[in-house]
Recover the amino acids of this structure.
């Protein structure tokens, strides 16, 4: 069986997941190297999987055994790392979002095109069984013509570490809600045309000080018709609260739930359910399928299911959102490529 | 339009409901009289509806304007009241259970037969939209051949007033679980053949002292095949908890829910749902349809949908349950008519 | 016990409900007359309750026995009927919305003020147990400071009869979504400051031809901070779909559900739940409490819980929504009184 | 860090899971060998993890590097494999149930005691977050004194391969419902005293021919008070249907759900939910915690959380169930050790 030799660059939580998946779950991938600027981290992961450890990205890219790189570092590093990998002839999987700005995204996309390497962006929700089935049902016509997309996304808390700095992460519209914009495009099969955003930092002082927002509501329109509402919040005291719905002329599809149905305690106060506890358990399979899709696109020499342009479109929407918040008026989404 | 003139005898909560329904909701019924031994009660209800008030049941039965009587008194009074009504040529609707003992039930049934009057027993759950639709789905074959009936029934608290005395009410198997046995027979379309009961008074001292039970589990078998489990409890701290399921060869139907889905409060402790709050709201429509069915059976001269024999069958099951608890062995249900 | 003598003017479905409730459920109200321009309708309802029948509204208002009038006619008739009732010295309960335009609402409010009669508007959801408990929880501080109001409202179908004509009904923002705007004001305890609306008639040709909308999304802002999203649709193929949520700094309250939890059929296709079936059953108790609140405000000479100004505020929001749709920009809500 | 060197014997699906977990997730375990009688299987797994491959169990046990063995073979092989491992001085984790008969279980337990090695039985549900939290809540007193245990367990289909032969698997009471009996003992904190079972093979001819059952209902009693109901079925057309509830004097805990809340398709037929899809995803974390608990019990030289005697108790209950079905009477559970 032909196999793709992969390396993972950036060994935070999500990098470790991609290392584990490519090692244990994919028959046609072979983990050959890991890289992190923290050498202890690189060494410990390398030892576990008996693979090479790097602390220098350029050195990793010179390794002829590596066919493809998973980039799992802070967003502001993505552009340069993608360009370098492409120039080194490596296929690239980058965690979402592709880059902080649309101009960076275009640079990354062009580098990959020029080098003729695959470039895939990790919007793993597309591979989640519930979202994937929703897409399938919509394509099959189960709800008729899709008219309205609604997404409510509340994280349990403020983002950790570097993701709190909007200059590194792109802020709430990119770091958090780009998943939801990707779903809007994917499930409706249409581009976002115009956004009108209300929002502020109402929950956390540190977010306000860094210039990011933590509560937003967005009303938007799709090209070719159809409307959308997105609400994002950086707080949900009982756990993740992520729900999506798509109303069509003949039905409505609902994805997600705020409650873990598996435990209820009935007491005098009522029945107490827990919030969703199983984020990683739930989405682990999505990461597996996502990584498999990337590997398959390389082996079959096909376009990856989530392209650099898909990544760019979401950055463009986020940029329009920022303008709408600042100028307090509806903003048309500008296509830059 | 031909109309049936009705009287309600016994003006507790359930009697008032039948008075209101026959007055306001049924086009082909006309409330003409009400009766209660408490004269203030009889007078106030009569005044509201501008109908006759009686405090004496025999006097009510002599009223030639009355075509049919709703008997909504304590269970131990049912037998004599049914017999008298039949002898007076009045059609009879009796609240459940029909009587405290099977021999009383037979007497009541025979009196109605002899007088050629309708006799209907008020198992209103059969008219609840969810249970009625479940029956329809089963008959249509949605779940294939029904094999297992499971019923979990928890009341919010101990029964009030006279219903706490098993000599007046028949105890937990008749006063509470006869609804569930009626559903077992109705949904499975089969008679109950044998029961094995475990139970005790584990929740309330007063129930123990009066010789009734408050927690029971029952394993039973249907004639012609199929099994059943029933659990009853006189306590559920957050509200009614009534759920029924019927598993067939090709599917399972679930009726009821322990949670009111209409309100959830998400706090640090989780999402708190209320128990079922809308007992009367939910079942009000069932009472309306039940009363309509009784009136229609009179006008069309048809067998009522829940006959005296249906009422008797449930009393026989309850008697077998009492024997099983006392003798601690499986008991065959004896058919007495 | 002092009682308020009431009349119901307009005997469509909702008028009949108010007649039934004031007759059967309210101890301190006495139904004395009903009125409809269709004489058969007036007579049949009057006969049932043994009260007076009118076909002429002016004649009804001259009846000295009548203390208060329930106005349950098409919206475009409300203003004149409220003014006339006030001038006749009758207290007024009007079904929602108060009027089609804000200037009409002001006229109605001023007439009631001048005559010193009570004027209450029928936003019965405030009396629904789930919504009322949500309000109570918010006031108690269960969710901290409320920040975001979200409401998804999908009717099962296009409105019937006169309500299809936006000139008579005020269109989707008044006829349907005024309930939701009333809830936004009520639950958040703040006025709506600005709205931005997207919408079209995407479902029904007849709605398009009459100049109304059937699918809308609204992003709005509250005075003093906080944001809102409302989505309305005139179609939901499986039943009512009404859900509201209020996110605060320390929790989120969810009201409503798209599913009737009481019946599920498990087959090879999955578990099939029904949509919400019990609209009338669910909200009947809310109508009872609403009517009781109106009667009590008269007997206690207090301000009704939903005033004419409450009714006006919602009309002002609806007018801003229409402007936003037409001018495709955010519109400030103008206070006219 | 001290580490336990482990081997996995039997590389079916569940064996592979234990190999993956001990390799990737446990810091203090080291996978050193795998064994299967099918050499291709042993070799491919060994190659993946770069560990030793065995096809002969006795040879594996002679490997001095191996500290502990995971036995993941058909049940009828467990007894001999446990005894041999103990005699070789290896700690033993055996998949559930411990053995087919109670006399075999006693032999296995005694061998482990004699050799002074750990023996743990894999009832992983105890480590599932929902079940574990339920246990915690019960111990904390959230529901007062637990009185009733109810468990409904429906598998999506007949068991595969060897598990269809009750001589190899112990039949429905051991192969399937031993999980539920383990939970009964665990959550109630009491032993099962007496069982009364109804059951037959009503779903599958092949199960009937092999002498196993596919539909059972069980009514049982706990020592020291309290009752239980268990229903098991080898068919649930829409997916796993596993629900447990424990009613106490002051509350009720519900574990499990028949519905995946994450996707609903609303069409004219209602809202269609899927059954539970994520068996492995859901329980994967439970397997991880279970394996960690075994490893920790070795390193800390403590009694494993699920002992050989725990395994034996469930076998004794299953034996009583078989007798009850055959003799059609309540059977006391006999303690054999």
């Amino acid at each position: 069986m032909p196999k793709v030799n992969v390396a993972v660059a950036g060994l935070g939580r999500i990098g470790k997941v991609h290392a584990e998946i490519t090692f244990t779950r994919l028959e046609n991938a072979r983990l050959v190297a890991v890289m992190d600027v923290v050498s202890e981290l690189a060494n410990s992961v390398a030892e576990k999987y008996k693979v090479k450890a790097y602390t220098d990205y350029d050195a990793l890219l010179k390794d002829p055994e590596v066919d493809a790189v998973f980039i799992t570092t802070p967003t502001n590093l993505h552009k340069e790392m993608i360009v370098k990998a492409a120039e080194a002839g490596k296929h690239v999987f980058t965690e979402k979002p592709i880059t902080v700005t649309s101009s960076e995204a275009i640079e990354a996309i062009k580098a990959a095109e020029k080098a003729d390497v695959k470039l895939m962006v990790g919007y793993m929700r597309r591979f989640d069984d519930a979202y994937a089935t929703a897409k399938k049902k919509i394509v099959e016509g189960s709800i008729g013509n899709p008219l309205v997309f609604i997404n409510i996304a509340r994280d349990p808390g403020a983002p950790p570490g570097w993701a709190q700095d909007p200059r590194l992460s792109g802020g709430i519209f990119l770091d958090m809600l780009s998943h939801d914009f990707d779903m809007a495009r994917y499930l409706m099969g249409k581009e976002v045309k115009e956004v009108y955003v209300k929002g502020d930092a109402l929950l956390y002082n540190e977010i306000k000080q860094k210039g990011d927002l933590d509560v937003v509501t967005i009303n938007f329109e799709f090209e070719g018709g159809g409307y959308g509402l997105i609400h994002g919040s950086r707080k949900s005291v009982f756990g993740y609260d992520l729900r999506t719905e798509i109303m069509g002329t003949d039905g409505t599809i609902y994805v997600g739930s705020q409650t873990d149905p598996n435990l209820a305690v009935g007491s005098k106060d009522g029945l107490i359910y827990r919030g969703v506890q199983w984020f990683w358990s739930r989405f682990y399979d999505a990461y597996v399928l996502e990584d498999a899709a990337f590997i398959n696109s390389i082996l079959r020499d096909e376009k990856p299911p989530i392209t650099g342009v898909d990544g760019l479109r979401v950055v463009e929407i986020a940029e329009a959102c920022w303008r709408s918040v600042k100028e307090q008026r509806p903003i048309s989404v500008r296509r830059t490529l």
User: Anything to note?
Assistant: Chain B touches chain C at residues 20, 23-24, 48, 50, 129-130, 133-134, 137, 142-143, 250-257, 259-268, 271, 274, 277-278, 281-282, 284-285 (CB under 8 Å). The CA atoms of residues 190 and 224 of chain B lie 7 Å apart. The first helix of chain B runs from residue 13 to 24.
